[in-house]
């Protein structure tokens, strides 16, 4: 009887396993049945085990096949667990990996051809590439009970070059402020602290806004801008362009302007010459040959170096000292030189002086109105008419007193220089106005080798030996 069951099982129960070994199927072949042998669950189970299937067997399927006599129908009878592949690493670039000369469009639809995306900046400890690590995956098990190894996720990476560091999760961060440089071939990322423009700043580069020091081998062409919190060095000419830096500025040639651009520097400025430009420097200003028609505000001193160096036209102010061989010329060109003021507070001081002047005007108007009421109306009427005027006066007086105290505070730093002076190594000409703190002197005749200083709030001149 046992031999007959073995023969019947072999002829009737067909077991197939999928190529990936995660599924097993049975099929009962009707035309192979011996009616003298009963087909039951034990017969099917024996056939499955004989095929080596031991994992994920589905008894309910076997019961259904026997009970419903599903002949010649392929039924899923066992199912393993397929492996789950690991996730690949994910790199999210927090900067554009492609530079573009395409001009940017403003919200108003205007296009500025100088505003292009060739340079991208990084701040210290800023995340430049966010990385999600790859995972190892989860092994599966086949219907034979054997492990199916899972594929691990693929790892992707970028090289952490100079000026960067890698976090514990593999992300790349900036080690310092600077300019982002990404090599798309080697996949190396750097944050460079010195940005070099090999030729000129023009339409081939666009405006240069960087988080590093800047060196320009050529000129800065008209209408363009350099902006950085660090130093700027320019080997050519600044041509009616703007330079905004918090470090120092060195221009090997010179600076020309038309009064429309800005040169604002947090440190010193060194230049051969400056023509018709507006300049603000928190440090000193050192000029080789000449300042012509400029508006200069300097936090320390202005020094024109050459023996024939000249300040001619415009308004040049410095906190402590102005020195040049010549100031003005024989043509009596109007020229203002001013020392003893801290230009950093100029705008605030002038704004508050304008406000207090307006309040004084309004208070004077109130005085006239009070005088008019007193002179025109009898005393019984005056009280009612003067009441609102007195309220207005009290309000203005309170504002005036508070503003006066604030102006006195600003004056203490605005006029805070201890011994401001103007030095003229050769000659100063008529047409020049000398200002030292609150005092002012108009030069009426030529003086040679002279120093101007403040004595008892009056400007005095002293001969230079």
What does it look like?
The structure is a single chain. The protein has 465 residues and is α/β, with parallel strands linked by helices. It has four domains: 2-79, no CATH class; 90-139 and 147-192, no CATH class; 195-345 and 419-463, no CATH class; 346-414. Helices cover 21% and strands 36% of the residues. The strands form six sheets. It has a 22-stranded mixed β-sheet that branches. Strand 5 and strand 6 (111-112) form a beta hairpin.
Reconstruct the topology from this structure:
Blueprint (H helix, E strand, L loop, with lengths): L1 H11 E5 L5 E6 L12 H10 L8 H9 L7 E5 L10 E4 L10 E2 L5 E2 L8 E2 L4 E6 L7 E2 L5 E2 L10 E2 L3 E3 L5 E3 L3 E6 L4 E5 L1 E4 L10 E2 L3 E4 L8 E4 L3 E3 L3 E2 L2 E4 L3 E3 L3 E2 L6 E3 L3 E7 L2 E4 L3 E14 L2 E4 L5 E9 L2 E7 L7 E5 L6 H31 L2 H36 L6 E8 L3 E5 L2 E4 L4 E9 L2 E6 L2
Parallel strand pairs: 11-15, 16-18, 17-19, 18-20, 19-22, 20-23, 21-24, 22-25, 23-26, 24-26, 25-27, 26-28, 27-28, 28-29, 28-30, 29-31, 30-31, 30-32, 31-33, 32-34
Antiparallel strand pairs: 1-2, 2-3, 4-8, 5-6, 7-14, 8-13, 9-10, 12-13, 14-15, 33-36, 34-35, 36-37
Helix pairs in contact: 4-5
């Amino acid at each position: 009887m046992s031999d007959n069951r073995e023969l019947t099982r072999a002829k009737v129960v067909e077991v197939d396993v999928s190529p990936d070994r995660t599924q097993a199927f049975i099929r009962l072949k009707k035309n192979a049945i011996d009616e003298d042998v009963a087909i039951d669950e034990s017969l099917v189970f024996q056939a499955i085990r004989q095929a080596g299937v031991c994992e994920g067997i589905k008894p309910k399927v076997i019961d259904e096949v026997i009970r419903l006599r599903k002949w010649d129908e392929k039924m899923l009878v066992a199912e393993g667990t397929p492996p789950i592949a690991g996730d690949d690493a994910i790199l999210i670039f927090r900067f554009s990996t492609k530079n573009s000369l395409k001009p940017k469009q403003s919200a108003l639809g205007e296009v500025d051809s100088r505003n292009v995306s060739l340079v991208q900046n990084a701040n210290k400890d800023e995340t430049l590439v966010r990385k999600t690590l790859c995972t190892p995956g989860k092994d599966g098990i086949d219907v034979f009970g054997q492990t199916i190894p899972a594929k691990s996720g693929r790892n992707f990476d970028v090289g952490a070059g100079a000026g960067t560091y890698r976090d514990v999760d593999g992300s790349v961060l900036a080690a310092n402020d600077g300019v982002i440089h990404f090599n798309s071939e080697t996949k190396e990322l750097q944050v460079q602290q010195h940005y070099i423009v090999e030729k000129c700043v023009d339409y081939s580069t666009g405006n240069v806004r960087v988080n590093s020091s800047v060196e320009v081998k050529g000129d800065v062409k008209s209408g363009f801008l350099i902006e950085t919190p660090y130093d700027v060095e320019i080997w050519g000419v600044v041509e009616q362009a703007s330079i905004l830096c918090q470090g120092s500025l060195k221009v090997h040639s010179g600076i020309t302007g038309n009064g429309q651009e800005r040169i604002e520097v947090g440190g010193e400025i060194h230049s051969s010459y400056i023509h018709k430009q507006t300049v603000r420097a928190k440090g000193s200003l050192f000029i080789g040959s000449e300042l012509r028609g400029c508006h200069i505000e300097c936090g320390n001193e202005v020094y024109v170096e050459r023996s024939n160096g000249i300040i001619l036209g415009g308004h040049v102010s410095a906190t402590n000292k102005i020195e040049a061989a010549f100031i003005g010329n024989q043509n009596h060109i109007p020229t203002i030189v001013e020392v003893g003021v801290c230009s950093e507070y100029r705008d605030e001081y002038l704004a508050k002086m304008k406000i207090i002047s307006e309040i004084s005007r309004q208070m004077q108007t109130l005085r006239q109105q009070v005088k008019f009421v007193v002179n025109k109306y009898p005393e019984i009427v005056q009280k009612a008419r003067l009441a609102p005027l007195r309220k207005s006066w009290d309000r203005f007086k309170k504002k005036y007193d508070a503003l006066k105290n604030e102006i006195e505070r600003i004056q203490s730093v605005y006029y805070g220089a201890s011994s401001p002076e103007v030095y003229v190594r050769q000659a100063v000409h008529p047409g020049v106005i000398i200002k030292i703190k609150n005092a002012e002197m108009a030069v009426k005749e030529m003086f040679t080798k002279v120093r101007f200083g403040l004595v008892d709030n009056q400007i005095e001149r002293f001969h230079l030996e």
